[in-house]
Amino acid sequence: MPRKKRPREHIIADLSTNHVERYIFLCGYSVERVECDYGFDLILFTYDDNGEIENGQVFVQLKATDCIKTLWDNQTIVFSLNRSDLELWLYEPMPVILVVFDAQTNQAYWLYIQNYFEKIKDFNLQNIGETVTVRIPKSNFINEDAIRKFASYRDRVLEQTKEIIKHEE
Q1: Would you tell me how many other CB atoms lie within 10 Å of the CB of residue 73?
Q2: Which H/E stretch holds residue 14?
Q3: d(Cα 10, Cα 158) in Å, to the nearest integer?
Q4: Cβ within 8 Å of residue 149, ≥6 positions away
Q5: What is the dihedral of CA 119, 120, 121, 126, to 10 degrees?
Q6: C-alpha distances in Å from residue 162, one per residue of 3, 7, 47, 155
Q7: pTM over 0.90
Q8: Which part of the chain is the DUF4365 domain (predicted)?
Q9: pLDDT (tens digit, 9 = 90+) per residue, 117-157?
Q10: DSSP state of 74
Q11: Which residue(s) pair with 76 in the sheet?
Q12: What's the DSSP call for residue 75?
């Protein structure tokens, strides 16, 4: 009787996690893997120069593929997202970063989800179908600079909330 087999999808999913985690660790940051994935795979935590944890976090959603799709220019990745994921991501105050991992080239590309959709004039989540296609520049590849950039996005969000949040009963 044949044994259970590990599908390719699981292998490349683990490779994508490993790829992103490595750059997070190289920055001196830490990451938590989300065990029950309902829209986020990783949560990024950052630390200052003294090694003290900083407020806020960055949420990361990983997508791995053996067959990345690009536009005719070969400089722009196209990727379809489910509306149900956008329902969560677009209402999350902390940055949500989509990472698409190309298992054939061992390269990962990122997109700051909230920023991307805020730039689309008159975008309305209620007016889209079940999926929407995003365009990710190949220049947005994962490395240490990208990970630090994600932390700066988080810092900008926190700066905006200083006088807004009131913890009252």
Answers
A1: 8
A2: helix 8-26
A3: 35
A4: none
A5: -130
A6: 56, 46, 20, 11
A7: yes
A8: 15-149
A9: 999 999 999 999 999 999 999 999 999 999 999 999 999 99
A10: S
A11: 137
A12: S
